[in-house]
Model the fold of this input.
Amino acid sequence: MRARREPLPSQEQRAVELFEKFDKFAPLRNSLRKIAAERAEWAGIPMQLDGTQLIVEKSYPYAQVLNAPPDDGEEPGIKVRNSWWSSRLRAEVYIYEEDGKIKKLIARKAPHNFSLDIATFGCMDVWGLEQEQKAMQLLATLVKHRQLKQYILTGGFLETSRRSGLMYFFRRLRPTVVIDARDQSSDESARILCTLCMHPIAHYKATWAGAMTPTDDVVAHLMLMRGDEHMFWKRANQHAPDRPEAGL
Amino acid sequence: MTGEVGILNVGAGDTKLVFDPNNPQEMIRAARIVKDMIRRGYALLVEVKAPDVGQPSTYRRAYDFDESTCEYIIADLDPIAAERADNEEAETQEPASASDTADQPQAKRAKKARTRRVHASTTRTVAVARTAGG
Done:
């Protein structure tokens, strides 16, 4: 009697095994992908990561489970009356009330964005190389060769909106920069209007990292700009160029 | 000819749905998923080929999807062409004199939104889930 031969693993199965061997988060990502497919979550299920706070879009079915409880940031006995960003001081200014007295606090920011940079770097484990590769392949079908070359070599590419004439600088792991260079007759140079920050499904608080791979975020920005620029602006958070969150 | 939908996905990078008229079962499944995505607030950006050869394609957001015919429903308005038409009209239109407008009421231009249908098997689409700010 012949022994039954087990079927050989497919090429894809071997690739998954290899990735799971080197990337300790790959088994969790792959499990979440299977669960998402079974539960008809077409955009997937975002992954929690120790040391970070996941912020999930409110209408997402698992938002209540995944989102942390709201934190108003106020200590007992202290009530924030007003706050604003000061470009001159490069600081967040708070006016607050404590024990019946009005006080001010000037929270200065460092003259660099390294804290955001390193926090974003720390979210790397939520993404897999195979997911990023698929996103890059999709991007390659949507842009011209020169734009793809710019993106691969420098991490960003430019495209001008045919509707508004505004120029968009799409960047990996940074908000999209909006540049107004429409007035060619003026002696003034082009100016930065703002940066637009937006992540489908979820993002990690105080970072530039989204739940999707970096190139998927870029594709989302690009396609919304092309297909519904108004919605792109409506859904994105706008950061002034001098804010650390702008990533400039 | 087949159409496809690329869904941006957290765990997969990009998952594909295919609208292949030779595979009705897959078409039905894909249509059901597309309809569900629109219901959930996903933005479906549909590629619309330019009427003239050599012109670049444009992208429009689909407002709805007809499951029975597998057609995206998009707004039938090209803002660029509309602006060009408005500019041409402004250049060629003569200024109205007082006597012309005294007795005749001005005709109001009816601005009714028109829609257009694009069959899912003839185009490609990218689906973007609702966004969580940033």
Notes: Helices of chain A lie at 11-22, 26-38, 63-66, 114-121, 129-140, 145-154, 214-227, 229-235. Residues 214-227 of chain A form the longest helix (14 residues). Residues 203 and 210 of chain A are 4 Å apart (CA to CA). Chain A touches chain B through 54 residues (CB under 8 Å).
